[in-house]
Specification:
Layout (H helix, E strand, L loop, with lengths): L2 H16 L4 E4 L6 E6 L2 E7 L7 E4 L2 H6 L6 E3 L8 E4 L7 H17 L11
Antiparallel strand pairs: 1-2, 2-3, 3-4, 4-6, 5-6
Helix pairs in contact: 1-3
Length: 122
């Protein structure tokens, strides 16, 4: 995939995350990892390494197993391999799939927050 195609993954994930209520982001770990949070809890990590254009999202284990059919979806980098997946550019990775993965990750994290910390419903 071209560099422009690689950037599509990152840019689509960022747009999807920033469209959700109560989202903040920054670089708490390293300058190469753009981390998105809801109420202080991580739901998306976007790498900025040109050699590893991936995003990492929280995912239910059953859903992660269903996504194994995509070669560019792997267990989450640097995180719990059962509850996080990483997506890279490749066949079948569409804007819709990326957006759905980001929104599902956000929902998983937000629904586990105490009611007082949950953002307004989306």
């Amino acid at each position: 995939m071209s560099a422009a195609g690689d950037r599509l993954l990152q840019d689509t994930a960022r747009r999807a995350a920033l469209a959700l209520p109560g989202v903040s982001h920054g670089y708490p770990f390293t300058p190469g990892l753009d981390v998105y949070k809801v109420a202080g809890k991580v739901f998306l990590i976007v790498t900025e390494d040109p050699d590893e254009q991936i995003i990492t999202v929280k995912c239910e284990p059953e859903h992660a197993r269903a996504l194994e059919r995509y070669a560019s979806i792997t267990p989450g980098r640097y995180l719990d391999k059962r509850h996080w997946i990483s997506l890279g550019p490749g066949p079948g990775i569409t804007e819709r799939l990326i957006t759905d993965a980001v929104e599902d990750s956000y929902d998983l994290v937000a629904e586990r927050l105490p009611r007082r910390d949950r953002p307004c419903a989306r």
